[in-house]
Hints:
This protein has helices at 16-28, 37-55, 112-126, 135-147, 198-201, 206-219, and strands at 2-3, 69-79, 85-92, 95-100, 107-109, 159-160, 170-176, 181-186, 236-240. By secondary structure, the protein is α+β, with helices and mostly antiparallel strands. Strands 1, 2, 3, 6 and 7 form a 5-stranded antiparallel beta sheet that branches. Strands 5-4-8-9 form a 4-stranded antiparallel beta sheet. A hairpin with a 6-residue loop joins strand 4 (95-100) and strand 5 (107-109). The two termini are 35 Å apart.
Amino acid sequence: MDGATALYDSRFTNDDVHYAVTMLNQELCEVDTTLPLNAILRSAIQMASQRITAVYPDFFTADPWQLPTFALCLCSITPTSNNQSLLRYAILGDCFIDIYPPAGAPQTYSDARFAQISQRNKERIAALDKNSPHYQSSVLAIYQDARKTLNTPSGYWIGSFDERGLDHMITGEVLLHPDTHIALYSDGVMKDITGDSLFDCYGGQVAPVLAHLTKRITHGGSGAQEVLKKQDDASAIVLRVEPSSHS
């Protein structure tokens, strides 16, 4: 999960986005995981919203683009026949799933719709005069303009506490062989990496991926940071599919 950059001042806590996404993450750990992925997320959002409004009744009384949003990827893995497993996934926003089978090329699943709006933002920012005293405020305005299109057909779909994006998640199924490796991660993990995915960057080798994740998440990055961010969220999990004990 990746909490979206706060483009407006927090109204209730030091960081409303971090607070809300932390509540959601906690509820995801408690929800019934036998439900479909869409229902898991919907249930967690509703429970988190109840917890938040119990403390701050007016937390969600603002325009949708001023409220906390988030990107995430969810997956479930179920054993099937022939010693294989079925992975079901759901993605919203700039989070990714890499699948590296024991034989063959890595596959990456992501939300290309969000990549398109990110590219438009970068192009608009690149056209600005960096020496202008209004550069930072102009960059902020570009991000705010894009945020106002959230969860609309002409904009982009993202996680929000009004649940509007849930019916537009990128979903699918993949059949997995034993010893397949899977990585789920937010875009902050890709800082300082060239390439379109973790496994692709490291040639499908798992050890350097784990080393990168350990360094990236534990110690963070250095050098020039993305505009408006001190440090991007970096969350990840790497799984290995083992042979099923079922016949």
